[in-house]
Amino acid sequence: MDLDNRDPYCFYALTLQRLISREQLKALESAQRAIGLTPNFAVGHFSLGWARLFVGHFSSAVDPLHRAMRLSPHDPINFSYLNALALAHYHQEDYEQALTYANRAYGLRRLYNTGRTLLACLGQLGLREQAERVRAEVPELALIEHDRFWALTNPYLNPDHIAHLREGLRMAGLEVSHETG
């Protein structure tokens, strides 16, 4: 930032750092700045959607996430865009739409985050058999027991949103024992 405060990528990175540091409202400012500098910056739109998601502005998170995908349809991190879209719909209780995006994200990258989102969607929809298959495919889901990783990947401003995600995971048969943010 000291070298060039007009580089949108710096503001994208600052957005991520601020989310991890639980400075969600400042993260929104950084994401807006990245887009203000370069309106066609795909990861800038992703960071705006992500920041809005964790602030709790779920419906307004959807448009920037879709725009990021339109700007960079073959982006290697599209699984993250799709996972964020799934979470935005999940928290609006549109579990069918959330499941569609979660399946696409998980199909691109079978990771802790994409598997966790998919499991929460399956849990909310009562699809326990499918959830059992996902749990068996992704042994890394055991990471959900590690409070630090959970906190890093769930920088929600409102604890009720974390509870909603935990609820879906429990309904999918995954015990979530920790209660930290």
Descriptive notes:
Helix 2 (24-37) packs antiparallel against helix 3, helix 5 (78-91) packs antiparallel against helix 6 (95-108) and helix 6 (95-108) runs antiparallel to helix 7 (112-124). This protein folds into 2 domains: 1-74, Alpha Horseshoe (Serine Threonine Protein Phosphatase 5, Tetratricopeptide repeat); 76-181, Serine Threonine Protein Phosphatase 5, Tetratricopeptide repeat (Alpha Horseshoe). The mean pLDDT is 92. It has helices spanning 8-20, 24-37, 42-55, 58-71, 78-91, 95-108, 112-124, 128-137, 147-153, 159-171. The two termini are 29 Å apart. The protein is globular, with a radius of gyration of 16 Å. With 181 residues, it is mostly helical. The chain contains 10 helices and no strands.
Layout of helices and strands:
Blueprint: H1 8-20, H2 24-37, H3 42-55, H4 58-71, H5 78-91, H6 95-108, H7 112-124, H8 128-137, H9 147-153, H10 159-171
Helix pairs in contact: 1-2, 1-3, 2-3, 3-4, 3-5, 4-5, 5-6, 5-7, 6-7, 7-8, 7-10
How many beta-strand elements? 0
CATH architecture of the largest domain: Alpha Horseshoe
- The share of residues in extended strands comes to under 5%
The domain tally reads 2
Query: Largest sheet at a glance?
Result: none
By CATH, the topology of the largest domain is Serine Threonine Protein Phosphatase 5, Tetratricopeptide repeat
Please report the number of helical segments: 10
Average pLDDT: 92
N- to C-terminal distance = 29 Å
Large-scale geometry: globular
Poorly predicted parts? none
CATH class of the largest domain equals Mainly Alpha
